[in-house]
Structures are given as C-alpha cells and as structure tokens.
Amino acid sequence: MSQDDIKAKVTRNVEFVRTGITDFLGGVAFALGDIDEQGAFCYSTPGEADSVVNINTTGVQRLILPLYILRHSEYLTTLQSDGIEDALLRMGRELHYPWASSSRSPKN
User: Fold this and answer.
1) Domains in the chain: how many in total?
2) Owning domain of residue 34
3) How many whole angstroms separate alpha carbon 89 and alpha carbon 83?
4) Whole-angstrom Cα distance, residue 61 to residue 46?
5) Is 106 part of a structural domain of the chain?
6) Would you list the DSSP string of 73-105?
7) Of the candidates 70, 89, 68, the residue with the CA atom closest to the CA atom of residue 80
8) How many CB atoms lie within 10 A of CB 1?
9) Tens digits of per-residue pLDDT, 83-104?
C-alpha cells in the first residue's frame, strides 16, 4: 500500500467517526428536549432552549460520561467540540451538578 492509499483510508475513517459523533450529538439534543422524535425543534427562538425544562433526565445522565470521553477526541470538528462543551455545561446546569464546568480557556 502506498502512503497516499493509507492517508485516504485514514481520512475516510475520520469522516466516518465525525459522522457518528454528529449522529450521537443529535441524541443529546433529543435528551435535552431541544428536538422531538421527528427531529423538529421544540422551541422557536434562540435562547429559548435554555428555558426548556422538559429534559429526559435519565437519558441526559447516560450521556454525560460518553460526552466527557468524546470531549478529548482529536477528530472533533470545532462545531462538534463546541457542541459537546455546551451540552455538558447545560446538562450540569439543568441537573444542578456542581462539577460541570468549561474546559475552554477563558477568552481575553
């Protein structure tokens, strides 16, 4: 196998991983009550999602550990990384977990 073939396979597999992560993050939005079973948003204005209290508490609790693990993946896109961070912060806030804090560097 040539180096180009290996790089192409790695690139393709990274895209498979990213697609899987995107699908997983859709499940997070569902558990948080932001989308319904059909994938439609349950709120109409930005920021309204933060006031939605109709979360699936058990589902959210089951997602916390996988999100913490994914948080450190080198294959995340910036959007996925930000989404995971925001989801963890919101989960902590919704469930009143004192350990939920941002891993992002403070912005100057």
Assistant:
1) 1
2) 3-94
3) 10
4) 24
5) no
6) -TT--HHHHHHHHHHHHHHHHHTT-TT----SP
7) 70
8) 7
9) 899 889 888 888 888 766 555 5
